[in-house]
Amino acid sequence: MCTPQPNAFNPCEDLMGYEWLRVFVWFVWFVLLAALGGNLIVIIVLLTARSKPTVPKFLMCKLSFADFLMGLYLLLIASVDVHFLGEYFTHAVSWQNDGGCQVAGFLTVFASELSVFVLTVITMERWYAISQAIHVNKRLRMRQATGLMFFGWIYASSMALLPLFGVSGYGAVSICLPKEARDVWDIVYIMSTYLQRLCIHGDIRLLHQYVPQGQSQ
C-alpha cells in the first residue's frame, strides 16, 4: 500500500512516476549540467573582471546565479529518483517531510522567482536604453540596479520561505513544489505565483511593442 495516496503528483514506485518523465528530466539535467558549468564560469568571470562593472553585467550575474540554483534543484530531484528507484513508496513520507525536500523546494521557488524578476528588470533596462538612445544620461544606474536586485532578493526569499512557515507546503508532492491548498491563504499563494508570471509575460510583450516607437522619437 502506497503512502501518501498515489495521484498525478505523488507516484507509488518511483519519484518521477512515468518513464518518459524520468527520461525528460535526465535529458534536461544533462543539458543543464553544461549550463551549471557555464553559469558558474559566467559568475566567476563577471566577479573577477578588472573592467568597470556595468548594469547589464551586474544583472546577467544575478540571472546566472538563479539559473545555477535551478540546476541544483534538478540535480537533487534526479538523484533522489535514482536512489529510490522502484521503492519510492517506502521512503515517500520521510522524503517529503525531511529537510532535503524542503531545501529542494526552497531552491526551485527562490530560483524561479529571482529569475523571473531579473528577466523583467533586464527587459525593462534594455527597452529604456533603446527608447532613450539619444539621451546618453538617461540610463539605469548601478545604484538603482542594486536597489532593484535587493528588492528582488527579498521578494524571492519571502516567496520561498512562506511554505516553510505553513503557507502551502513543499511536502505535498514528490518533487517538492508548493501545491498544497488547505485554506484560502494557500490558494492565494499558489495563484499569485501563476498570475505573477502571466502578468510579467504580458508586460514584457507590451514593452517590446513600444521599442520601435521609442527608437523613432
From TrEMBL:
Keyword Transmembrane helix (UniProt): yes
Keywords: Leucine-rich repeat, Membrane, Repeat, Transmembrane, Transmembrane helix
Keyword Transmembrane belongs to the record: yes
GO molecular function: G protein-coupled peptide receptor activity; protein-hormone receptor activity
Organism from which the protein derives: Lymnaea stagnalis
Annotated protein name in UniProt: G-protein coupled receptors family 1 profile domain-containing protein
Subcellular location: Membrane
G-protein coupled receptors family 1 profile domain ranges (all copies): 38-176
Transmembrane segments: 23-47, 68-86, 106-129, 150-173
UniProt main location, coarse: membrane
Matches recorded under PROSITE patterns: G_PROTEIN_RECEP_F1_1, G_PROTEIN_RECEP_F1_2
Domain of life: Eukaryota
Coiled-coil blocks: none
GO biological process: adenylate cyclase-activating G protein-coupled receptor signaling pathway; hormone-mediated signaling pathway
GO cellular component, one term: plasma membrane
InterPro entries to which the protein is assigned, alphabetical: GPCR_Rhodpsn, GPCR_Rhodpsn_7TM, Gphrmn_rcpt_fam
